[in-house]
Amino acid sequence: MLTVDKTDGTFLYEQVVHLIAGQVENGALRPGDRLPSLRGLSRRLDISVPTVRQAYLELERQGRIEARPKSGYFVQASRQNRLVRGARVSGKPSTVKRQALIDRVYDHIHQTGLLPLGIANPGMAHPATRTLHRAMKRVMARTESRLLGYAPAYGDPGLCRQIAYRYLNQGGSVDPAEVLITNGGQEALTLALQSVARSGDVIAVESPAYYGGLELIESLGMLALEIDTCPVNGVSLSALSKALEEHDIRACLFSAAVSNPLGCVSSDEGRRNLVQLLESRDVPLIEDDVYGDLVFSGERPRPAQFYAQRGQVLTVGSFSKTVAPGYRIGWLLPGRHLGRARKLKRAISCSSGLLQQLTLREFINSGDYDRHLNRLRPKLQHNAERMIACIEQYFPAETAISRPCGGSVLWLELPGGVDSEVLFDRAIDIGISITPGRIFSPADRYRNYMRLSFGHPWSEAIESGLEALGRLVRELAVSGRTPAPVPARHGQNLNPRVS
Ligand SMILES: Cc1ncc(COP(=O)(O)O)c(C=O)c1O
Predict the structure, then answer these.
(1) Ligand 1 close to Cβ of residue 288 (< 6 A)
(2) Helix count and strand count (H, E) for the chain
(3) Which is the closest atom of ligand 1 to the Cα of 120?
(4) Is the residue at 85 inside a domain?
(5) How far is the CA of 185 from the centre of ligand 1 (A)?
(6) Nearest to 357 by CA among 208, 150, 218, 219
(7) For this UniProt entry, which residues form the secretion signal (predicted)?
(8) Rounded Cα gap, residues 329 and 353, in angstroms
(9) CA of 145 to the centre of ligand 1 (A)
(10) Fewest beta carbons within 10 Å, which of 65, 156, 258, 395?
């Protein structure tokens, strides 16, 4: 019998989305099948027509179904639009135990001679080498004698001003004195987590989550709790709200704009609601915004910071993804945790590289940073489209692909029998590095998922690498084939063809 659970705390339309997505995934609904009418489904589920409409619109946005004028809604016929599934996670907080796998991935991340589809380095799609070198030369000529000294502990004031000014362009007001320059986004994440939580505390994370954040949680002895995350809209607020009821969550660590690995961008409205929800419980939000400048089109998403009223949002930024990860320059807006974050910064690393800070300041000042971004974004979008086309050509038809709105990675769901750790080893043998899915989950999910990076100048080597990878996936899909289990939640049948 078809049902939704009105007491479950999840939005009803989300339940309908999962219900139908599950039917499509377990094959009860096939490409081209007609969905029940809005009125019909509202009667069967005893919910309102607008709720069903909202669910259908969401499914349409996710590319799972299509509206045909005067005919109704149909399951997407083309695999062009097959999207990775959102996770339904009902886990408990757990220690992160991903170190061994992360070690293995890191062993190969910088290995020369490998096709580097495992490393997320978007700036390489259009390197700013020449303009950046010129900026550095100008700085060296001007400030030679100062350059061997320490930078101010909290950052070069000129760079802090530039960063604050850029927020002004996005419609938010940031005091330069509240910008803390760090050694990359990773140090900013460390300072943020240590400012608001301690060993044993529970940190809510997306599912899948950036593995560098998970490794950090692990190294600080904290526990991670995965929250349902939609591949299109980001973290589910109803799932988060439920988790806040059930667990003593000390802080949340979520992507602000473009997430890694899903590539999705939550709406401004979604971010506002997220901040409101967390502020109502005085739970700090650490927003990882290192990809925010790399949305492919439209306005740059406004950081959640702008919606904060109580100083409980800590924003992490970085120049690694846009310009130069080797410079190791990022920043933190610590909100009301500024004092603690500053102390930690002093204790952990004293200050950050002066030459790199002054070079970036010069790079931004000259207008080169914006010109660079204007060239980089379309390159990345073009690469994403080409990589998706290659995967559709070379990978098994059941492969589902994310539709990133920015950044430099694709998230793939492979046919059930494929273990992406085995694929990782086999791919290294043929000279390709990838990132296996399990690394993105503390609770051992995503065994048959992987992340691929398109942050490189497009080349024939990438195309033939994808072809070879597709062959490997096909081989593993055949050798590991087992009957697909039907998830209990998706066991309800919407298709009149199958009783
Ligand atoms: C989502 C996310 N946050 C933070 C970082 C760390 O950035 P940085 O290289 O500036 O330390 C990365 C790097 O891969 C990332 O992908």
Answers:
(1) yes
(2) 15, 18
(3) 14
(4) no
(5) 5
(6) 150
(7) none
(8) 8
(9) 32
(10) 156
